[in-house]
Specification:
Helix content is 41%, strand content 19%. The protein has 15 helices and 16 strands. The strands form three sheets. It has an eight-stranded mixed β-sheet, sandwiched between helices. A hairpin with a 7-residue loop joins strand 3 and strand 4. Helix 1 crosses helix 11 and helix 2 crosses helix 4. It is elongated, with a radius of gyration of 27 Å. The two termini are 35 Å apart. Bound molecules: adenosine-5'-triphosphate (ATP) and magnesium ion (MG). The site of adenosine-5'-triphosphate has 18 residues, from strand 6, strand 10, strand 11 and helix 11.
């Protein structure tokens, strides 16, 4: 697990703020969920044949013997909460959550043992327009962050449970007859979860998959219609997509639409967001049957992408005001002036030098902090009722100004400030 240092956390907050605004603008409300849930929830909710549950969970002993796990993803917990608090039965709920997820994986760029996700789930809507809306939320967010051009949407349908059962039989038969070409992992999955073999990255296995039967040949008219409707909505929303007949999701309860946003910019860790419909999950976790659909965005990867494509995002620190006082009385006054500035210049960070010392020493500190302006108060300023304003990063003389004039000057210089 890694520490997120200020440089990165700033970008992360920016993404989280944008995502939050975007989700609220679609009418989704935030759920805050525990980081720990019972292991059984993930075995049932994610599926005990999945990589996540088989290999990636951090399991912990609770004092009373109930096996618990650090959450590897958010959907299971969200559905549990929706059932527990009656948010899924006989009503429509649009929910989102965010926070750390934990998976025991080999850490590398874009793959961490603790990582951040922002996810959304909607309950009670069986219609294809919802699937399109969830994709649209992603699309809107990526556009807002200026990365939509680097994102490719892959989409597929995996049909209803019954259709999938027939498909899985056909798929298994195809894979069986190509046993010799399958990798060890895929052979192990052949019995219990042949669908997941479609996810294999192994090249010989991929060659077998390329000739495998396709799910669309096993769908009935309703399922086909659902998928076509989703695609029509996407077209009408102007969202480009690529149908990938072999895209599946790790969870057992997914039905119909599955999708993934991926980018080429991040090498092997190209999946940035993934989701789909899971009409069986609420019931599978003990609730009364209710349709559901959702997605989860990997924030760490989205940040890496933002960093790689639009480098110089203005940091709020680039407008830093650094306040310096040269004697104790001036420092007392400056602490209050600092508060007034924080109100009048909302959004601009204002640092008051509480360490003190010689003016030169404090100015060097201001420089090290990357201040754009320094405000100086000493005995002579106090006597005259003014402050000295000194630009640190652009040419220009320092000036002695009354407070109001100083605020006006700063507002002008920052182009109105947001
Ligand atoms: P991958 O195929 O890369 O392992 P996944 O299918 O396991 O991804 P999901 O369970 O669909 O991922 O999670 C949704 C998103 O969360 C992913 O698209 C990715 O952006 C992010 N994510 C998943 N695992 C990690 C991780 N270990 N570190 C960072 N981000 C991750
Ligand atoms: Mg994974």
């Amino acid at each position: 697990m890694r520490d997120i240092l200020p440089e990165e956390s700033e970008g992360m907050s920016r993404i989280e703020d944008a995502a939050k605004q975007c989700l609220h603008s679609f009418g989704y409300s935030e759920l805050r969920l525990p980081l720990i849930e019972s292991t059984a929830l993930f075995e049932r909710g994610v599926g005990d044949g999945t990589d996540i549950v088989e290999k990636e969970m951090f399991n912990i002993d609770s004092r009373d013997g109930e096996p618990l796990s650090l959450r590897p993803e958010g959907t299971a917990g969200c559905v549990r909460a929706a059932i527990q608090h009656g948010l899924a039965f006989n009503r429509i709920s649009r929910l989102w959550y965010r926070g750390p997820m934990f998976r025991y994986e080999r850490p590398q760029k874009g793959r961490y043992r603790q990582f951040e996700q922002i996810g959304a789930e909607a309950f009670g809507i069986a219609k294809p327009a919802l699937d399109a809306e969830l994709i649209d939320i992603n699309h809107q967010l990526f556009a807002r962050l200026g990365v939509d051009e680097h994102m490719k949407l892959r989409i597929n349908t995996i049909g209803s449970f019954a259709e999938r059962r027939t498909y899985v039989e056909a798929l298994r038969a195809h894979l069986e007859s190509n046993r010799d070409a399958l990798d060890a992992d895929s052979l192990r999955r052949l019995e219990r979860s042949p669908l997941r073999i479609l996810d294999s990255k192994h090249s010989e296995t991929r060659a077998v998959i390329a000739n495998a039967p396709k799910i669309e040949d096993f769908l009935d008219a309703d399922s086909m219609h659902h998928f076509e409707q989703v695609l029509e909505h996407l077209q009408s929303l102007g969202i480009g997509f690529e149908i990938d007949p072999y895209l599946v999701r790790g969870l057992d309860y997914y039905t119909h639409t599955v999708f993934e946003f991926e980018t080429k910019q991040l090498g092997a860790q190209g999946a940035v967001s993934a989701g789909g419909r899971y009409d069986g999950l609420v019931e599978g976790l003990g609730g009364r049957a209710a349709p559901g659909a959702g997605f989860a965005i990997g924030i760490d990867r989205l940040l890496l992408l933002c960093q790689s494509v639009n480098t110089e995002q203005a940091s709020p620190r680039s407008s830093l005001l650094y306040c310096v006082a040269t004697d104790e009385d001036s420092l007392k006054a400056m602490m209050s002036i600092g508060n007034q500035l924080r109100k009048d210049l909302a959004g601009v960070p204002v640092v008051v030098d509480t360490q003190g010392g010689k003016l030169g020493t404090q100015m060097r500190r201001a420089d090290r902090e990357g201040a754009r302006w320094t405000i100086i108060a000493g005995e002579s300023e106090r006597a005259e009722g003014v402050l000295t304003l000194k630009p640190m990063r652009e040419v220009g003389e320092q000036s002695r100004l009354k407070y109001d004039a100083l605020v006006l000057r700063l507002l002008e210089a920052h182009g109105g400030l947001s």
